[in-house]
Sequence to fold (138 residues):
Amino acid sequence: MHTAEHIVNGEMARRYGCGRAFSAHVEKKKTKLDYHLDSPLSAEELASIEDYVNGVIQADVEVSEEFTTQEEAMARFDLSRLPDNASDTVRVVHVGEYDQCLCAGKHVGRTSEIGRFRISSSRYQDGVQRIVFKLDQN
Ligand SMILES: [Zn+2]
Fold:
């Protein structure tokens, strides 16, 4: 779930310049991601995101990590969400060439382990686009 979230976030930020989800609720069977957008995503755009994520999953890319200093990371990432007491060494997680971000969470080793990605619902309200996704095991 969490690794799939990385892929969606990376692509949303690239396509719409909205940054990564400002709020994420990870539940047992679904994950809800919220983005600030000026207008709702169309059914075609949502289908395109879904296809994109499944493409990355099928490409079976490696998820790897890299350790760097906060100072070096500052040039590459938005560190505003880093807790004040974070250590000087920070972890960067890469999903192949598709996404990189600072993260302390747990990830699969390869994207093929994610399963099949499906956007189960979406909603747009007050400038916030919510995307809810589920994973189906192959
Ligand atoms: Zn992560």
Summary: Residues 2, 6, 93, 103, 105, 107 surround zinc ion (CB under 6 Å). Residues 20 and 99 are 11 Å apart (CA to CA).
